[in-house]
Specification:
Number of helices of chain B: 42
Helix content of chain A: 55-70%
Largest sheet of chain B: none
Shape of chain A: elongated
Distance between the termini of chain B: 91 Å
Strand content of chain A: under 5%
Oligomer: heterodimer
Number of strands of chain B: 0
Number of strands of chain A: 0
Number of helices of chain A: 6
Radius of gyration of chain A: 18 Å
Structural class of chain B: mainly alpha
Strand content of chain B: under 5%
Radius of gyration of chain B: 43 Å
Chain lengths: ~100, ~850
């Protein structure tokens, strides 16, 4: 994931304080000793959008192509979630397929 | 007609008849290395010779391995056939838990049930029935009603199946109470125990992911429910990780995972299509995908993402415009500039493109459009970064930085950069103006105050500098840089007063400086100036003590002596006489490597702004420094030393150290360069031999990938060679309409420029150059019929290809005054 807004889980129209709170929550959830790479990406995301100047700089000069997983997460956030329980048929499909993957 | 050979048919290799021993060895080897197919062939051949028990057992093992290989490839039907062969040829039991897996994998449920009914008692006697029962339990949960056929009513499978199904239903219907009851009714040894564990973990995962992960880890890899456990484990990951794992999953598992994650059903087709694009999609495909699914995404996001794709796929603009509306002039200009950046265009083109973007920024002229102003400021600063790459004089950066601060006056870094640029250029008035503005925005900022100290020092306003430095130290007492600057300010003030013979005031100033001293280095600096003051006061004994103590505190050796010398030179004391007066002998013997390196560090750290003064002081140390040249320095150390002597104008020392290094590393390009660069500056000038060595060194540096050295040599050659790029550059020729002929002309120019400068003598090169230029001129202008002299595109004197090159430097530069390269310490002119 590359999109700093998605990494910090903040809306595109946001405030410095919102970003800061999201950053603090993210590093609390993922301290450097747990996942150094993720921690680094959180740091970079924070640097990219921590203030209005950074956010504008990011929108003006970011030349990275949109990453597929970013688009996926974006689409996911736009849709209403379904109740998180599959039907019996889905369970049965997975078990049946399991016989083919010994 | 000749008879055609059928080429498509490969000749069959002759079947080699192997001896029994060799075949046995080969069979064993194949079995050992997992080549089961070949092992089966060999053992079958061996069994034709003799039905030896060990061979039968090995063949059975080979069949098992082969069947396993086939199942790994999903070829269950073939594996079933292999297993049947095994049973037949090796007289092994057909009905085993593995065979049931093969049958269920092949979808031959009926056959599995029939075989179970036939062999259930045998399986029970062999003690493998529980394993087979688990498989039938999974089959029953998967919805195969026949899975329960052939099992007695009191069998755990038949008994627990309704409870397991009830638990599953309860979970799917979110009936947690019923789920709890059903799960607790499934016994510990039930064939449904793994399903119970999975359902428990899934229920738990909604509140405690770690516990759920632990529970799922307890499901054994051999369990028939393992696929379900793995799918459940995937759902415990964050959304983006699940997305990245989706390609590994089959369609059913994806749907299951999506449902467990609570993803809406619409997302799956989007997901499937997105996954087909790959992890690094083609820009065109991605743009088309984005536009096709734009309704699923936020409109603003689609626009931003689309604009970023257009950087890589500029042709897609019309496609984008059809769905999202045309790009605004500003968006188009930004996309152009970013496309150039992505294409690594020349920095100048990028600067021009961004400059165009600023002019197209909507709302910039409206007074209160903060975002437009900030955007303009950011773009201007971005342009400055590209200007830096152009190696233009630094003052060229100033207008854009100033303009950016007009748009966004709250950028501290820009103020600091601007102040430093003005100070470096000696334009203290402007530096002070921007400093005032910076202080108005950031009155208490240490970095800005530090600039204020430096600016005050640059203007000899020592008192002001001291006041500002004291202010910083109040806020930041451990700021050693400012502490040193403060001491420097007091010392400079004291020197000024010594120069004006205000010796008492100077003493007071030095006492104040001493009160700020915290380090041995600062103590040494104060002691040395105090020593000079005492010299001026005629107190030679006191001066001797102070100066010696200052020299020792400065580290002694060459560095210490240099610190002492520089104070004497600064205060215009005659060095030899003073040294005699204070009983300081000249440094004797050969200084050590460490001693020289300490001096080099000192020069580079502290005296880069006082090169002339330092060079004068160093002139009193040339004898010991010459003696130290043949020390066995490391190559990088020797390079730094040569570089330092060059920057301080000590060309004799540079030449000597380079020669000494060349004795250690014969023909090493970097030292050839130093030697040549020094020789150019010395009265003897650059010798032909060194010139040839330099050309050779450039090639070798290039071949060895030492691009920095190659560039330095090229620069030196350009400054001193007739065919240098300074005189002619293909790029300097204006664009022409001569489409057809230009490549030839360009290649001629390339030839003149000397693609291989080492080839041919200089005289012959000049001659060739003149000939080719004459040909070129004839082609360019003479060939145009009816062209009068008046039509000649250049004014007289504007361009004359045969005119002597301006300030033509001789290769063997005899005098320093000719073609002297600009001094490194020369500041940018304003």
């Amino acid at each position: 994931m590359q999109d700093p807004y998605l990494i910090l889980n903040v809306p595109r129209v946001t405030t410095d304080e919102q970003v800061r709170q999201a950053y603090l929550a993210a590093i609390r959830h993922c301290p450097p000793d747990r996942d150094a790479a993720q921690f680094q990406s959180i740091q970079q995301a924070y640097e990219a959008i921590k203030c209005q100047r950074s956010r504008l700089r990011n929108s003006l000069f970011n030349i990275a192509m949109p990453a597929p997983d970013d688009l996926f997460i974006q689409a996911l956030t736009q849709l209403d979630p379904a109740p998180p329980r599959p039907g019996i048929k889905l369970f049965q499909g997975v078990i049946k397929n399991g016989f083919k993957a010994i | 007609m000749t008879r055609r050979r059928n080429k498509s048919r490969k000749p069959q290799p002759k079947q080699r008849i192997l001896s029994q021993e060799i075949r046995q060895q080969k069979a064993f080897q194949c079995l050992k290395t997992g080549c089961y197919r070949e092992a089966v062939t060999h053992y079958k051949e061996l069994l034709k010779l003799e039905r030896r028990q060990e061979w039968i057992a090995s063949l059975a093992e080979a069949y098992h391995g082969r069947a396993q290989d086939l199942t790994n490839k999903g070829m269950f039907k073939e594996a079933v056939a292999i297993w049947r062969n095994r049973a037949e040829v090796c007289s092994c039991p057909l009905s085993t838990p593995f065979f049931f897996r093969l049958l269920l994998g092949a979808g031959q449920t009926g056959k599995a049930v029939a075989l179970l009914q036939e062999t259930r008692i045998d399986l029970e006697q062999q003690g493998v029935l529980p394993e087979v029962r688990e498989q039938f339990a999974a089959l029953a949960v998967a919805g195969a009603a026949e899975a329960l056929d052939g099992w007695p009513a009191d069998d755990p499978l038949t008994r627990d199946c309704p409870t397991a199904m009830a638990a599953l239903e309860a979970y799917c219907e979110r009936d947690d109470e019923r789920l709890h009851t059903a799960l607790s009714a499934i016994p510990f040894r039930s064939p449904f125990r793994d399903l119970r564990q999975i359902l428990k973990a899934l229920h738990c995962s909604e509140s405690d992911i770690e516990s759920a992960t632990e529970m799922l880890a307890r499901v054994p890899e051999t369990s028939p429910f393992i696929a379900l456990a793995r799918a459940a484990k995937t759902t415990l990951l964050p959304d983006q990780d699940v997305f990245s794992r989706l390609p590994e999953l089959d369609r059913e598992t994806r749907a299951f995972v999506a449902a467990l994650k609570g993803w809406p059903t619409k997302i799956l087709p989007f997901c499937h299509e997105l996954l087909q694009l790959g992890s690094e999609p083609n820009p065109e495909a991605l743009l088309r995908f984005l536009l096709r699914h734009r309704k699923l995404l936020d409109a603003e996001l689609v626009r931003q993402a689309g604009c970023r794709i257009l950087i890589y796929y500029p042709k897609g603009r019309s496609l984008f415009a059809r769905s999202c509306g045309a790009l605004t002039p500003f968006e188009r200009a930004c996309a152009d500039a970013l496309h150039m950046e992505e294409q690594r265009a020349h920095p100048r083109e990028i600067v021009v493109a961004w400059s165009d973007a600023v002019t197209k920024l909507e709302g910039l002229k409206q007074q209160h459009n903060k975002e437009a102003a900030l955007s303009a400021a950011l773009i201007l600063r971005h342009m400055v970064e590209y200007q830096v790459r152009l190696s233009e004089p630094e003052y060229m950066l100033i207008p854009h930085i100033e303009q950016s601060l007009e748009f966004d006056p709250e950028d501290r870094a820009s103020y600091i950069r601007l102040i430093q640029l003005y100070r470096k250029g000696g334009r203290l008035k402007e530096a002070r103006h921007w400093l005032e503005r910076a202080l108005a925005c950031f009155p208490e900022n240490v970095a800005v105050l530090e600039e204020a100290v430096e600016t005050a020092l640059a203007g000899n306003a020592y008192k002001k500098a001291a006041g500002l430095a004291a202010r910083i130290l109040d806020k930041d007492p451990i700021n050693q840089r400012v502490r040193s600057a403060l001491i420097d300010a007091h010392l400079a003030h004291a020197r000024k007063q010594i120069g004006q013979t205000k010796l008492e005031l100077a003493a007071k100033e030095l006492d104040t400086a001493f009160s700020w001293v915290r380090t041995e280095d600062d103590r040494a600096r104060v002691a040395l100036v105090q020593g000079v003051l005492l010299l001026n006061q005629g107190e030679h004994n006191g001066a001797e003590t102070r100066l010696k103590s200052g020299e020792a505190s400065s580290g002694g050796g060459l560095a210490g002596r240099f610190c002492l010398l520089i104070e004497l030179v600064r205060m215009k004391h005659p060095v030899p006489q003073t040294m005699k007066r204070i009983n300081l002998p000249k440094p004797a013997g050969k200084p050590s490597m460490e001693d020289v390196l300490r001096l080099i560090r000192l020069l580079n750290d502290r005296f880069h702004n006082e090169k002339n003064l330092a060079a004068t002081a160093l002139n009193h140390l040339t004898a010991p420094l010459r003696r130290a040249a043949n020390n066995p320095f490391h190559a990088t150390e020797a390079d730094v030393i040569c570089d330092t002597w060059g920057r301080f104008g000590l060309h004799d020392l540079r030449c000597r150290y380079a020669k000494s290094a060349l004795k250690q590393w014969r023909n090493m390009p970097v030292f050839v360069y130093h030697k040549a660069a020094a020789e150019i500056e010395l009265p003897k000038g650059l010798t032909d031999r060194t010139f040839d060595q330099l050309m050779d060194a450039e090639d070798r540096a290039h071949d060895a990938g030492e691009m920095v050295v190659a560039q330095r040599i090229r620069k030196l050659l350009d400054q001193n060679d007739l065919f240098a790029a300074d005189y002619f550059d293909v790029a300097d020729f204006p664009d022409s309409d001569f489409d057809g002929d230009m490549p030839d002309i360009a290649s001629m120019i390339e030839m003149i420029m000397g693609g291989n400068p080492s080839s041919g003598s200089r005289g012959s090169k000049k001659q060739t150059a003149e000939e080719v230029l004459s040909e070129l001129t004839a082609q360019l202008f003479g060939g145009i019929s009816g062209m009068d002299d008046d039509d000649f595109p250049f004014e007289e004197g504007d361009f004359d290809p045969f005119a002597p090159a301006p300030k033509k430097p001789k290769r063997a530069v005899k005098k320093k005054s000719k073609a002297k390269p600009s001094k490194p310490d020369q500041q940018d002119l304003f």
